[in-house]
Structures are given as structure tokens and as C-alpha cells.
Amino acid sequence: MSVDPAGRARVAARFDAARHYEGAARVQALAARQLAQRLETLYARNPAPRRILELGCGTGLLTRALRALFPEAALTAIDLSPQMVARAREAVPEATYHVMDAEYPTLEGSFDLICSNFCIQWFTDRAAAFTRLSGILTPGGRIEVTTLAQGSFTQWHAACSACALPSGFPDYPDAIALEHEWPVSMHGTWQIDTLQDRVGSARAFLRDLKAIGATTPRPGAKPLSIRALRDVMTQFDRTGDVMDYQVGFGSAQKHRGFFVTGTDTGIGKTLVSAILTKALNATYWKPFQTGLAEEAGDTASVTHLAALPPERLIPPAYGFQAPLSPQDAAALEQVSVRPETLTLPETDRPLVVEGAGGLMVPLNDTTLLIDWAATLDLPVILVCRSGLGTINHTLLSLEALRQRGMRVAGVIMSGAPNAANREAIARFGQVEILAEIPVLDEITPESVAHEAATLAISLRQRGW
């Protein structure tokens, strides 16, 4: 249930008073077990999380499972209710606990896994909360949560409808609404499962709601009169003793970084890559480098401009002397480019991957750069010129990316600011303009750091 910030103290007080929570929280316990099973399956084929944050730990239903699944992980659990935190601490003493609003966590460091069970339906703005939570995830980190979804409490709604009365329950979101709430920094899905609880009777159902503290009505809803409530309870008891809960299981992973490409060659792609790498404190990789006969290459430029230490630099997979496309430069050196053998390097930081030239640059006789980039599963930052001709080039590039199902994080414009072109690209391209990099008097580590500070703010607002 969504509550305004002024009501959070009342919510905490209700949960503080929920003395018999675990005896009544049957569906919560079932959802926690199912979420734990999903986590076990997920991490059976992935490295175990090192730092875990649990939101709304309650009495520790999920906390116990997390500790059993990941005994070596540093587990932090938070809840708005001091009494709930105290009970969870008794159940799992080897975790770290904080009394804290799960919608606005204020914790140091980042986490590999953020999870919660039946907590986020209390958030005022889930989409904004997911963006904030993404900001404290490591690259590749995950959010795994449950929440009530549309269709919950069907039998109670039906009883109220039969009596021509409002149910008082909130309008929970459906899967489509939930899907739209993941931030651009993450790729996520939702699955809705029906969980049933044999409540016994209307009186027992209402008693259990009170026992778990879930008695906050929908904002603006008036409570039923005693007579009306008795009518609804009588109607409910005539129809059965089962209550349906539609439970959404949300699973999302933060993207590991960005693929930086351009609408053309020589438009400032490497400068943007240096600024982005600095803004994210990231690792940099340019897999295909040409033109080494004439210059040290983009890897050397980014290393200098972003002041990268050696451990945050991935050498090119292919480096060629001629200032040509990778296909043609490789042919001159009698080398075949095999992009299918390349995988993203392992790094514990965000990864900035810079392309070569534009999207349609050939890597070999059968593969364009865009074809290989589509296999990386990284959101794309498209760099474009700000001046004449950019609208056509940029919109065509955006269309090519989307035809291949590639996620576009946004556009960065390079050159003298042009408000008309910016507005046209944003409107017709249905894309965010992440930044405008002006013509710099000098391209130095200091000027890159200045632009990076501005870009970092824009990225944090989107969960990076």
C-alpha cells in the first residue's frame, strides 16, 4: 500500500504493535520461501553476492533464508519498525541491522544484491525508489523483490461488490505497470503468481490483517461502518474460506556499463568516453583500434584524459596501423577479425566500451560493428554532432539500434549547443539527451574532470 511520508510513523507503529506477526503472515512466509528458491536457482549459475541488502526485513522470514543461502555474504537488513528489527535480530543475530525507511536507504558502499519480501507495496513512488536503489548496486548487481499485484483479495472485493460497498483496499499495479518502473540503468522482468491462503472466515481474515500490521486503508478511503462491515463479512463467509493473493516476483539486473558509439567518425566519441569513464570511475575498453601508424590511439588518449590507473584499462583486442575500418585495416596486415570470440572483460567497476567509427563500420566480411555490439547486452550511449545534419544522422542511428533490440541509454551531443537540434532529436528520437559537451578551449585531464562532474549528476539521477 502506498503511503505518504507523513503516514510512515503510523505504519511503523502498526508494525511495532504486530505481536503475532509470524503466526498470521502465512502468505508472506510462502512468498519468502519462493523468493529464496528463485535466488538459489539464480545464483547456482552465478557467483554468490558478497554484500546483500534486505529491505523491510520484518521478523526475519527472508533474512533467515538469505543467511542460509549465502553464509559468507555481508548481510544488512533494514526496517521502518524498531520492534521488527529487534525480532529479526533475535532470529538472525549475525546480520547488521538498521531502523531505516526502505524507500530512502542511507547506507555506505554498494551491494551485489538488494531484495525484499512484501515491502515495496508500501513505497510512495516505486519507480523513483528503484532508481535510487540502482544507484547503490554494483555493476551487474541485482534487485529481487516481491509485492502485491492487481487482483489480490479477489474474494473480499467480490463480497464488497455484492453489498455495493467499496473494499477499501488499494489498487495494486499489474505486470505492465511494474515493468515500466525499472530504471534505464537496469533490465528487469516481473512474474505474477497466485498464492492462496485458507483464511477460515472473514473474521479470521481481518484479525490476521491486524496481526501483521496491514490495516492502513487506501488513501482517501473511508472505513466501513460496523453494519456495512458485518454485511460484507456475512457475504464473504457464504462463498468460501480462501483468499487469493496475486504476488509479483520482480527480478532485475543493473547493466555492467555502456557501449559508446557515434553517428560518424571524428565526432568526439573518444572525448565522451574519457568523460564518461571519469564520471563513473569506470574501466575502459576499446576492442578495435585502427590508425596506430599516425597516433598512439584512443586507449592512450582516454588513459591520459581520465587519469586511469593501469588496472582500469583493458588493452584493445585488435590494433591495426592503417586509419581504415577494422575490416580493411586487418586485411592489409593479413589478419582476420573474429568478434565472436570476444566477451566482456571482468571488472568490479562499470565498463565503458568504445566502438570504432560509426555503427555500420564493417569488422569483417560478414559482421558490422552494430551486429557485435548487440551481443554485449549493454545500453548504448550515442554521440552525435550538435550542428547541421545531425538530426538525420542521429535519428537513423537510433532506428538502427532499436531494430536490433538494443537499449539506448541516451544521446550525448558534441559541439556548440544547439537548442533546436537538441529538441528535435529528443522528440523525434524519443530519447534522453544526457549531456551536451561544448567545444573545449583545451582538452586536458582538468577539463575532462569538469565535464565529468556534470555528467555524473545526470547519470546518478538515472540510477548509475
UniProtKB/TrEMBL annotation:
Matching SUPFAM superfamilies: P-loop containing nucleoside triphosphate hydrolases, S-adenosyl-L-methionine-dependent methyltransferases
Catalyzed reactions: (7R,8S)-7,8-diammoniononanoate + CO2 + ATP = (4R,5S)-dethiobiotin + ADP + phosphate + 3 H(+)
Keyword Nucleus: no
Domain named Methyltransferase type: residues: 53-143
Subcellular location: Cytoplasm
UniProt xrefs under InterPro entries: DTB_synth_BioD (IPR004472), Methyltransf_11 (IPR013216), P-loop_NTPase (IPR027417), SAM-dependent_MTases_sf (IPR029063)
Keyword Magnesium recorded: yes
Catalytic residues (positions): K286
Binding, ATP: G266, I267, G268, K269, T270, L271, E354, G355, A356, G357, P438, V439, L440
Cofactor: Mg(2+)
EC number, as in UniProt: 6.3.3.3
Pathway per the UniProt entry: Cofactor biosynthesis; biotin biosynthesis; biotin from 7,8-diaminononanoate: step 1/2
Keywords: ATP-binding, Biotin biosynthesis, Cytoplasm, Ligase, Magnesium, Metal-binding, Nucleotide-binding
Enzyme class: ligase
Chief location of this protein within or outside the cell: cytoplasm
Similarity comment text for this entry: Belongs to the dethiobiotin synthetase family.
Role, per record: Catalyzes a mechanistically unusual reaction, the ATP-dependent insertion of CO2 between the N7 and N8 nitrogen atoms of 7,8-diaminopelargonic acid (DAPA, also called 7,8-diammoniononanoate) to form a ureido ring.
UniProt xrefs under NCBIfam families: bioD
Quaternary structure and interacting proteins, as annotated: Homodimer.
Protein name in UniProt: ATP-dependent dethiobiotin synthetase BioD
